[in-house]
C-alpha cells in the first residue's frame, strides 16, 4: 500500500526528492506529472510505501534543513 508523502510545486522538485529517497533505498512514485513544461495546477504528488513513510519523512525534513 502506498501513502502520500508530499505535494511538490514542480516536477523538478518531485524528481529531485524521488532521487534522494531512492539513494536511501526507498522506492517512490511521482503522480500528477505532466512533463509538458507547465506546472500542474494541483502540484506533483510523491508517494512511498506505507512501511517507508516515517523514514522518507525524516529524509525529506533533513533536506529542507540543508536548503535553508
Topology:
Blueprint: E1 2-8, H1 11-23, E2 28-31, E3 44-49, H2 53-67
Antiparallel strand pairs: 1-3, 2-3
3D architecture notes:
- The chain is of the alpha+beta class and 68 residues long.
- The protein is 41% helix and 25% strand.
- The protein has two helices and three strands.
- The chain has helices at residues 11-23, 53-67, and strands spanning 2-8, 28-31, 44-49.
- Strands 1-3-2 form a three-stranded antiparallel β-sheet, covered by helices on one side.
- The radius of gyration is 12 Å and the shape is globular.
- The N and C termini lie far apart (32 Å).
- The mean pLDDT is 85.
How many whole angstroms does the radius of gyration measure?
A: 12 Å
Largest sheet: 3 strands, antiparallel
Can you give the mean pLDDT? 85
Number of alpha- plus pi-helical segments: 2
Low-confidence stretches: none
Counting helices, strands and paired strands, the structural category is alpha+beta
Label the overall shape. globular
- Percent range of helical residues: 40-55%
**Oligomeric organization of the protein chains:** single chain
Q: How would you write the strand order of the largest sheet?
A: 1-3-2
Features:
single chain; 68 residues; alpha+beta; 2 helices
Short structural summary:
With about 70 residues, the chain is α+β, with helices and mostly antiparallel strands. The chain has helices spanning about 10-25, 55-65, and strands spanning about 1-10, 30, 45-50.
Amino acid at each position: 500500500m502506498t501513502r502520500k508523502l508530499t505535494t511538490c510545486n514542480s516536477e523538478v522538485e518531485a524528481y529531485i526528492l524521488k532521487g534522494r529517497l531512492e539513494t536511501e533505498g526507498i522506492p517512490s512514485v511521482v503522480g500528477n506529472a505532466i512533463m509538458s513544461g507547465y506546472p500542474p495546477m494541483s502540484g506533483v504528488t510523491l508517494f512511498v510505501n506505507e512501511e517507508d513513510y516515517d523514514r522518507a519523512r525524516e529524509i525529506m525534513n533533513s533536506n529542507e534543513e540543508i536548503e535553508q
